[in-house]
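HOLO CASE FILE
Compound: protoporphyrin IX containing FE
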Amino acid sequence: MDLPVDSSVVVKAVPSAIAALIVWVIARRFVFPHPLDKVRGPPNPSLLAASQFFAITYKLRDVFLQKTAEGPQEIDFMRWATRVSLEIIAQSGFGTSWDPITEETDEHPFTSSAKLIVPWGKKLLLFRTFVMPLIYKYNLGTPALQRFLIGLTPSTPLKELRNIVDTMHCHSLKLVNEKKEALAKGSGEFRNDHKDILGILMEENAKASEEDRLPDNEVIAQISTFTFAAMDTTSSALCRIFWLLAKHQDVQDKLRAEIREAKQNLNSEEPNYDQLNALPYLDGVIRETLRLYPPGAVVGRECRKDTILPLSKPIKTVDGTDTQEIFIPKDTTIFASLLGSNTNPELWGADTYDWKPERWFSPVPEKVVEARIPGVYSHLMTFLGGGRACIGFKFSLMEMKVLIYVLVDQFKFTPAEQEIIWTMAGFTTPLVDRSKVQPEMPIMISRAD
Ligand code: HEM
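Model generated. Tokens follow.
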């Protein structure tokens, strides 16, 4: 067969091409390997959820593209981060869609309700600390009586919280009933393609023995638990990350460069889970933010038996003596500072209160390793540790990474004029006006070059 070019030229070029290829492979492997090299390969089918997260995030990207068509715009980032977080947990957790995420549609009532639990709850600190535990402990009054009494009180926060609970309950009940109906028709149809958490729970619950089976009200309660645990925390962390990126343009630029390089290297719009995790700057930004600004700064616990708490170093008691341990009587409520552990200068060093994503490019300080912090994530207590640790932390990390990957690539974020007030009661929440209940985080966005 005739070759379209002079065959002698091709034959002479072969050894040079092979030599060039060898040089290129060696250079890529040893001189400037890309972090994604380690994780190339077929996508892991068990981690396909990343593509579901991308699909939801693209809707937000489209809203922002629409908004910035005429130039820079101020947006309430809290509003959009909450909508996306809710939709992600609705689709992956419950196999339903609650929010089309468009400029023209309002947020789902579940979002507007769940988002206000913390701000209204904050106004009832004394009631929650002293009265509610007694109501639970002594099982005072039926739910109907409690609701009736709330109606008689002049307390707006109590009434608001009751309305919030009603809204969330009503939507959760509807969802459980729909799932039950589908379950009755056959599990194949029921699960559809999605192995969502609620679907699996209900399917297994239906098979469980009478004594192991969760009653309906507990299944319904799981929906509120998951929504609340997933939505408020992740949206709070996302707000903080974008606020920091807006304030540190140099970090934002480096992050954008890393994302764009990854896109080019992968030759694809969407990295899979492993590829996303292999981006060091993206990972450093998230780790550092969750270290210095954990969405929940403290957790409360009730001591179930008399306990002696050993201390890492002696403290002075009121009578001036040194002690190495504290006695905590049964039923004492204690608050453990997750923030305090994450930022302890004795472990993390003098620059502990500086936000430095690069910190994570080197091994963590020896003292941090030696302290054996029991947290499930990165020597941090942000997601707690032990039997009650956060079960959604990898889910949340992936959600944040996907959102940052998509948005920072396309948009530039700069601070808005208003000062943000970060309130620390409950989950950390951004506000612009302390007298308002509604969380808000204005930020300027424009198209990135
Ligand atoms: C940045 C995001 C998140 C943070 C900082 C966070 C933090 C925490 C913390 C500190 C706890 C322990 C609370 C306590 O026991 O007092 C917890 C529990 C929990 N989290 Fe998360 N979380 C996040 C995201 C998520 C997501 C996305 C989900 C669900 C998909 C989730 C589901 C849960 C659940 C169900 C629990 C209760 C676990 C149990 O008590 O056994 N979380 N989370």
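CASE NOTES: The first strand starts at residue 73 and ends at 76. The chain has one domain: 49-447.
CLOSED: yes
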